[in-house]
Amino acid sequence: MQKYICSVCGYIYDPEAGDPEAEIEPGTQFEDIPDDWVCPVCAAAKEMFEPEN
Q1: pTM score, two decimals?
Q2: Which helix (H) or strand (E) holds 50?
């Protein structure tokens, strides 16, 4: 599964872990996260994330 990294703070969204605090279930692909989701560390918008290489 593709991980995504926040270009502001470096937080890595791992689809296998999800984001339980934001009620994003494990196994949720980044593309399937609601558009109003924000980085749990710095509150950057979803569009500030890029695919991790």
Answers
A1: 0.93
A2: strand 49-51
